[in-house]
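Structure first, sequence second, as always.
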């Protein structure tokens, strides 16, 4: 069995107490986006520049924030 990717860990891919398929789909999409950014960051060895560090960390944080808000909206009950 393969381990979780960076993005899957970031979004908590296995955590879905509502067992909502839309939550699973959203988490997979955001995990894919996080993996894309992380792979690009590593491939270009961007870690040496303070600006790229800030941009990378901010981007990953925004992906996480967006994912949590999407899940919140999907599971929101009036």
């Amino acid at each position: 069995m393969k381990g979780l990717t960076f993005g899957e860990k970031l979004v908590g891919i296995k955590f879905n107490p509502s067992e909502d398929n839309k939550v699973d789909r959203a988490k997979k999409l955001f995990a894919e986006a996080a993996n894309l950014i992380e792979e690009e960051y590593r491939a270009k060895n961007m870690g040496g520049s303070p600006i790229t560090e800030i941009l990378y960390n901010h981007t990953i944080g925004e992906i996480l924030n967006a994912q949590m808000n999407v899940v919140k909206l999907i599971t929101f009950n009036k």
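Margin note: Residues 50-75 form the longest helix (26 residues).
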